[in-house]
Amino acid sequence: MKNPLRFIQEVKQETFRITWPTKKETMMGAVMVFALASIAAIFFLIIDQILRFLLNILLTISF
What is the pTM of this model? Predict the structure, then answer.
C-alpha cells in the first residue's frame, strides 16, 4: 500500500493534468445530444402512428 499522503499528492497532480472541454465544445455536445434526441423522438412517434393505424385497421376488419 502507498502512503496516504503520497496518494493525495498524486491525485492532486493528476487533477492538474485534466483538460476540460471549452465552452464551444460543451455547447456543441449539448446541441448534438438535443438534435439526436429529437430525431429519435420523431422516429418513434412516426413508428407509433404507423403501428396504431395498422392495428386499428386490423381490429376493424369484420370476419
Answer: 0.65
